[in-house]
Amino acid sequence: MENLIRENLSEVKGTIQRAAQKSGRRADEIKLVAVSKTHPPEVLRQSLAAGARIFGENKVQEADRKISEIGRDKAAWHLIGHLQTNKARRAVKLFDVIHTLDSVELAERLERICIEEERSQLSVLVQIDLAGEATKNGVKENDLPNLAAFLQTCERLKFDGLMIIPPFYEDAEQVRPFFKRLRELRDEIIPNGELSMGMSHDFETAIEEGATFVRVGTAIFGQRHTQ
Ligand SMILES: *Cc1c(COP(=O)(O)O)cnc(C)c1O
């Protein structure tokens, strides 16, 4: 498994490099989040040995178990799944970046917990729901200015950019308009902020459209057997 992960990582990094070059960007502007959800700590250890530095997890409890096995300081830990308010305190202790901030209420709570837990800074990205899909989380475009304004008043939360999980299309070209729109919003609201977009099947397109975080699971670890 370790060799496979090593090969896959090197292939993904190569693709990042080429996509960056193609769009006149520097490859080091693009950070790879290795999406390790559902995979056991052993696999994360192997990926660390193979050069992974940032892990993306979507569930607080699952991440908690893995982080205590691997070590909080051995990697950067990013939350990429929806955060329930009752898990916010745990999340503040576990994660370096939260990609899925999606309400003023959650922001208020995280800010308060950072103060209580004496965490001086927590990097957050706001998840945007551009497609208006009822099943997806994220703020609607219209509600973004309000949340952004609130974040400017926060002392501990550091508003670092935007994130999107677009609708799934086999053909990455169909996702491109979502990436373009997220970038426009970023340019309006938080110029030079991070853009967390692109997964295994569409991260090249996302990079062409300006992604600074790509979240790649399957292309590194293979198919997941559970959700
Ligand atoms: C699972 C997941 C990914 C990774 O998806 P792959 O298709 O396996 O690369 C990226 N982002 C989020 C939010 C996810 O939940």
What's the total helix number?
A: 9
Q: What's the Cα radius of gyration?
A: 17 Å
The average pLDDT score comes to 96
Instruction: State the oligomer.
Output: single chain
Hetero groups in this structure are: pyridoxal-5'-phosphate
Structural class per helix/strand content?
alpha/beta
Q: Which descriptor suits the 3D outline?
A: globular
Element-level helix/strand string: HEHEHEHEHEHEHEHEH
Helix content: 40-55%
The CATH architecture classification is Alpha-Beta Barrel
User: Kindly, what is the distance between the CA atoms of the first and last residues, rounded to a whole number of angstroms?
Assistant: 20 Å
> CATH first level: which class?
Alpha Beta
Low-pLDDT runs: none
Measured by DSSP, the beta-strand proportion falls in 15-25%
CATH fold-level name: TIM Barrel
Main sheet, how many strands, which sense, barrel? 8 strands, parallel
Give the structure's gist in a few sentences.
With 227 residues, the chain is of the alpha/beta class. Helices cover 41% and strands 18% of the residues. It has one domain (2-221): Alpha-Beta Barrel (TIM Barrel).
